Amino acid sequence: MSSLLPAGKKILPSVLRIAALLAVVTWVPSGFASLTTTVDRTSLSTIEVMTLIVRLENVNSDDSPDFSSLLSDFEIVQQSGPSIRQNLTIRNGRRLEERLTEWRLLLRPKRSGQLLVPALSLAGYQSRVFTVSVSTPSDSLKRQLREYVFIETEVDRDTTYVQGQLIYSVRLFHNGYISGDTPKAPELTDAIVEVLEPARRYEEVVDRRNYYVLEQTYGIYPLKSGTLALAPETFFGTRNVRGIRQRTERVSAISGGHEITVNPKPKAFPSDNWLPASALALTETWSPEQDTFDVGEPINRTITLTAQGVSSSVLPRLGFDAGGRAKTYTDPPVATDHVSATGTTGQLTTTVGIVPTEPGELIIPTVQIPWWNTDDESLRWAELPGRVITINATAAPFDAPPLQTSSPAALSPQIVTEVRYDPMGWYLTGLFLLLWLGTLTLLIKRRHGRPRSPTNTTSLKESNLSTPDPAKRLTQLRDACRNNDAEAVINALRQWLRATFGPSVTVTQWLQQQADAELTQQVTDLQASLFSSTGSVWQGGDTLIADIERSENARKSGASEHNTNANGVGLAALNPGLEPTNLVV
């Protein structure tokens, strides 16, 4: 134990000396704190740029200087930073740290003369003030800069109207390999700017020099009257310089600006729907294309409005009132925009369904749309002429010849088939025919496959010759209405009418006999839903069946006591001159 004590006495002084040495090491900045600004040139022209370098030394700050004071005389073309560099060294036992924060700005002078670069402030430090000399570019300098890169801009007109179209084209010409940011789309607060097409790239010879061209076209739509200023387009980049050592050289280009006069809507324009365009067309189509229709026969009228120089969002919505002889159903308009290098063409297509409700002349009014021709600055009118459509009452299918008692044939009514163009009806008829043929084939096979039974034959004949049950048909109609199936309802309605009033009674004849405005409206809405191009779902089933049952109860309660044959009563009421005893079942 005693042999360890001398060693302990030697170690303790060494530890104390090391601790004392570390205590004298302190953090000391390498230099004074400062904020400085420098430029790479003090003399330039209005079509050149200079680089402003801002340095903050030995100050620990996360803020940036306020550069807005530069904007009075300079345009900040490009800005980068902050970039931070730190260096830590220990010298003579002292810890030294260097910190440098740097910003770089590319400035273009807005005018010629002696321009002031103002003092900048940050973290309590301030830079110095100095001036740069800006001159008007000489022709030789313009030619020198134009040799490598230049910009051309063009507008299709110097005067336009609020919401009118202005075509603005920007073309960047460059010779050889150039790197840099291409001009951006104009930033306007009082206009809408749209890119009309993707940028085009091609080659063009200018002053016997071959240039690569990058062209971009915009559509500009002013939102208020006054002067619309388009600032000059600029390009700043670098080009590769050939030589023994590869190096780059700064290049720049600037175009001229434009001032556009934007006129307000003329006071003489007769409508609130202001429509400035360079061309406009108003067309229509009818389906079917004819001048005579029957009551209840659906008609489609499609109106197309096309305007060059405006989008579809500003086109007026169209529609018309057919008066009291028809119901109209206007589908939501279909809006489309066609965009090309020549501008925007807006199109609005409106389809109106017409269902005649009573015979006579249906007057379709004239459609007139005022618009302003921006090419010759004149008021124009687009017009669809009015027309008169003849609406016929449904042909009476029960007009029978006078009764002839000497001939048995006179006891049978004349049956006239009413022909209507109903594509869905033909499809259903074909389907029912196929099902009937299949059933008939199955019955024949079963008949040949088992012994004949008089009882079965009699039952089959009685089933085929039995009269349709009106109550059963009404139940089917009620079920279809509850499902709001428009096609099933119209078919069930026809089946019920045939079972109740006779095989040739039409929906239109039944409605005329009922003289019930509410019931007629419900059936009209049902028929209109079958040809609507919007695919809307009919939801009037509950109301329709309620109106039918109400009408049917009224008919039954008001029937005369001596009319014992219900079918005969209904048929005679719908077709005067046809007695109940003439009905052949």
Automatic annotation (TrEMBL):
Residues 473-551 form the DUF7939 domain. This is DUF7939 domain-containing protein. InterPro entries: BatD, DUF7939. Residues 449-469 are annotated as: Disordered. It comes from OM182 bacterium MED-G24. The keyword Transmembrane applies. PANTHER family: PROTEIN BATD, PROTEIN BATD-RELATED. Keywords: Membrane, Transmembrane, Transmembrane helix. Residues 453-467 have a biased composition (Polar residues). Pfam families: BatD, DUF7939. The chain crosses the membrane at residues 424-444.
